[in-house]
Amino acid sequence: MKRSPAWREGRVDLGRRRTLLGITACATSGLAASDALAQAAACMLTPNPGEGPFYFDPALVRSDVVDGSPGAPLDISLQITRAADCAVLANARVDVWQADGLGLYSGYPNQRGVGVPPESAIGKSYLRGTQFTDADGWVRFRTIFPSWYGGRTPHVHFKVLVGDREAVASQVFFPDDVSRDVFARFAPYRDHADRRTVFNGNDPLFDGVLSDVERSDDSGVVASAVIAIDA
Description:
The chain is mainly beta. It has one domain (25-229): Aromatic compound dioxygenase (Protocatechuate 3,4-Dioxygenase, subunit A, Sandwich), CATH 2.60.130. 4% of the residues lie in helices and 31% in strands. It has one helix and eleven strands, in the order ββββββββαβββ. It has one helix at 176-185, and strands at residues 25-28, 41-44, 73-82, 93-98, 128-132, 138-144, 155-162, 165-173, 209-210, 212-217, 220-229. The strands form three sheets. The chain has a five-stranded mixed β-sheet with strand order 5-4-7-8-9, with no helix packed on it. A four-stranded mixed β-sheet has the order 6-3-11-10, with helices on one face. Strands 1-2 form a two-stranded antiparallel sheet. It is globular. 42% of the residues are buried.
């Protein structure tokens, strides 16, 4: 596997084993350098549960999708690979969208969120954007950590298109200890963290890719994930 782009602080070594969700995601098996056996990449197809109810394309090709939304900074990188052989895919389109720090998606009325009125979301397009993968298959988005809402654990939705074909629409999740730390450390999450907060273990729609979190501290979260598609 390739390494993540140089602009990432403290690069992620994609040769180490990645945490997987269920039987789906992309993994690289690793042994010590002294091991006589050659490394063999093995990719498992990322699940495709669908885009969910809050997708729309605002036609915004951008890496910074924050658009004024308050919350813990999140730097998330996604590498798109071909499941058949783990080859990286350049120039694939990646759309992302997610809830804000109050569990609300931009552009939609009548949302549950964390229990606050959704008026601030209507007519907006925050936390949505598109990027195209570089030569090593990477896209990177600057965003905020998504809140829990309703019966959902924190997650970032993504859709990958190769040419005109939609290859996958799925979700990236975060380890529960990272979510708990963010909810305790940052506003506005901490103001609502006692309202039936949902984590991975009690989300009935927990189906996607569990991210590799490189850092979670006062400056925010840095995470990455490998997405393996049928291409």
